[in-house]
Amino acid sequence: MAISPPSDLVLDVVKAADPMEVQAAQEKLKANRAAFAATSLAENGKGFSNTVDVLDRVGQKSGLANIQNRTKTEEVPESYRKFEAMVLQNFVKSMLPNESEDVYGKGATGDIWKGMMAEQLGNVMAKGDGIGIAKQMYSEQLRRQEGKIVNASTDDDDRNTALSMIDDFQRKTFGTPTADAKADRTG
């Protein structure tokens, strides 16, 4: 039977070591390996920041990066956009991590900062086309108003009143006397 002194010694040391210390050492090795891989990617131009830079350049070339550059097909009133921003703020706030005291702070102050960040994100998202809530609500309101106009009806009395008003307006505009004025002159 052959023995391999270096590996046997290493195994004996590992077996004699505290399991928690072995696990900590393995975690450090994994972290170092991950850090080395990230550094290698960054040095080769394939890291995260390089990818973000590439995406930014593509966005600027296509015009997608500038929210003010977008064409507006339909002007939606500000009140609908504010409502969409509020809905988006609630969505974003619920998606932010709860255990984020290191980022926002502790207690009520941290909640306020977290709420302010969610509000700003919601406002920015709603400023462009949003996710369509404002546009959908506005178009629905326009459809309702169109329905009210289509359902308007008149009877003969309304029609006769409107025609007499038009006749009076034409007489006053063109200076033609009314039937009552003619009777007064002749009588």
How many H/I helical runs? Answer: 9
Radius of gyration: 38 Å
Mean pLDDT across all amino acids: 75
Strand content: under 5%
Question: Would you mind describing this structure in some detail?
Answer:
With 187 residues, the chain is an all-alpha fold. The protein is built from 9 helices and no strands. Helix 4 packs across helix 6 and helix 4 runs antiparallel to helix 7. The longest helix has 25 residues. The radius of gyration is 38 Å and the shape is rod-shaped. It starts with a helix and ends with a helix. The model has no long low-confidence stretch (mean pLDDT 75).
Give a quick precis of the structure.
With 187 residues, this protein is mainly alpha-helical.
How would the blueprint of this fold be written?
Layout: H1 5-16, H2 19-43, H3 48-62, H4 78-95, H5 101-104, H6 107-127, H7 133-150, H8 156-174, H9 179-186
Helix pairs in contact: 4-6, 4-7
Throw out a few tags for this protein:
187 residues
